[in-house]
Amino acid sequence: MVMGPGLAGMPMDEWKIRTAGGKEYVFDSEDEARAALPDYGEGSTLWKRRAYRGIANTTVSSTGWIDVT
Question: How many helices (H) and strands (E) does the chain have?
Fold first, then answer.
């Protein structure tokens, strides 16, 4: 993956909500993800990972997603 300029090469937390039906929605901050969690219905879970951003907002993580709910 090609890293972009600025903060692209810095690791940052990335958050996602996985619905009971298996759909996934990614967020840039924990606050944003936690605020949205109730809107995705019962059984939805919150996940995070440490990711590096590349060009065109692509992300790579060596650790994978961790369930935090």
Answer: 1, 5
Sign of CA dihedral 37, 42, 44, 46: positive
Query: 50, 11 in Cβ contact below 8 A?
Result: yes
Q: How far apart are CA 50 and CA 30, in angstroms?
A: 12
Read off the amino acid at residue 13: D
Other beta carbons less than 10 A from residue 25's beta carbon:
15
Pick out the chain residues at pLDDT < 70. Answer: 1-9, 54-59, 62
For residues 39 and 56, give the distance between their C-alpha atoms in angstroms, rounded to a whole number.
Answer: 28
Q: For residues 63 and 34, what is the distance between their CA atoms, to the nearest angstrom?
A: 21
Q: Where are the domains of the chain?
A: 6-54
